[in-house]
C-alpha cells in the first residue's frame, strides 16, 4: 500500500489524475465501478476486501455505486492517505458504524431514504429533533438519500475529502 501513496498530491495536475482515472476505467464509461475500484484498492494498493468495500463507500459521496472523476480527484487531492484504515481501532469503529448504517438500509441501496434515516435517528435517541432539517443537513448533495460518506462526515469520523 505504501507505493500507492505517491500519487496522492494536492498539486497533482488534472491531466495526471485523468490518466490514472482512465487506467482503471476499463469499460470507458467515465466512472469507476466497484470492480474497477477493487482493482485499484485491493490489487494495486493492497487493501483487503473489507477495507476496500468500506473505503469504496466513503469515496462514493452520493451513494450511486460509482466513483466519478470529481470524487476521485477530491480523494487524491485530499492527501488523506488512508488514515481511517491505518489505525485498527478506528477501522473497527468505522466498520461498526457501517454495520449500524446497513441495519437501517432495508432496501440494500447503501443509502438511507428519509424514512430509513428517521428510524435510525430515533434508534439513536434523537426522536425530538426536526427530522426534515436534520435530513436536509446530512443530505449534502440534496439527492434525497444519505450516503454512508454523508453519514460519516456528519458524525465527524472521517475527513471531508473536499477540504
From TrEMBL:
<dbReference type="GO" id="GO:0005509">
    <property type="term" value="F:calcium ion binding"/>
</dbReference>
<dbReference type="Pfam" id="PF13499">
    <property type="entry name" value="EF-hand_7"/>
</dbReference>
<feature type="domain" description="EF-hand">
    <location>
        <begin position="56"/>
        <end position="82"/>
    </location>
</feature>
<dbReference type="InterPro" id="IPR002048">
    <property type="entry name" value="EF_hand_dom"/>
</dbReference>
<dbReference type="InterPro" id="IPR011992">
    <property type="entry name" value="EF-hand-dom_pair"/>
</dbReference>
<keyword id="KW-0106">Calcium</keyword>
<keyword id="KW-0677">Repeat</keyword>
<dbReference type="InterPro" id="IPR039647">
    <property type="entry name" value="EF_hand_pair_protein_CML-like"/>
</dbReference>
<feature type="domain" description="EF-hand">
    <location>
        <begin position="131"/>
        <end position="161"/>
    </location>
</feature>
<feature type="domain" description="EF-hand">
    <location>
        <begin position="92"/>
        <end position="127"/>
    </location>
</feature>
<protein>
    <recommendedName>
        <fullName>EF-hand domain-containing protein</fullName>
    </recommendedName>
</protein>
<feature type="domain" description="EF-hand">
    <location>
        <begin position="12"/>
        <end position="47"/>
    </location>
</feature>
<dbReference type="InterPro" id="IPR018247">
    <property type="entry name" value="EF_Hand_1_Ca_BS"/>
</dbReference>
<keyword id="KW-0479">Metal-binding</keyword>
Amino acid at each position: 500500500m505504501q507505493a500507492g501513496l505517491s500519487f496522492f498530491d494536492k498539486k497533482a495536475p488534472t491531466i495526471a489524475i485523468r490518466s490514472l482515472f482512465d487506467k482503471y476505467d476499463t469499460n470507458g464509461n467515465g466512472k469507476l465501478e466497484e470492480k474497477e475500484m477493487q482493482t485499484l484498492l485491493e490489487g494495486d494498493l493492497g487493501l483487503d476486501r473489507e477495507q476496500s468495500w468500506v473505503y469504496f463507500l466513503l469515496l462514493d459521496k452520493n451513494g450511486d455505486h460509482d466513483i466519478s472523476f470529481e470524487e476521485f480527484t477530491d480523494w487524491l487531492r485530499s492527501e488523506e492517505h488512508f488514515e481511517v484504515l491505518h489505525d485498527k481501532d478506528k477501522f473497527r469503529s468505522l466498520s461498526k458504524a457501517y454495520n449500524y448504517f446497513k441495519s437501517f438500509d432495508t432496501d440494500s441501496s447503501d443509502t438511507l431514504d428519509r424514512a430509513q434515516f428517521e428510524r435510525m435517528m430515533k434508534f439513536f435517541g434523537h426522536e425530538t429533533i426536526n427530522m426534515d432539517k436534520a435530513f436536509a443537513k446530512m443530505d449534502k448533495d440534496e439527492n434525497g438519500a444519505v450516503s454512508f460518506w454523508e453519514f460519516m462526515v456528519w458524525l465527524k469520523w472521517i475527513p471531508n475529502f473536499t477540504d
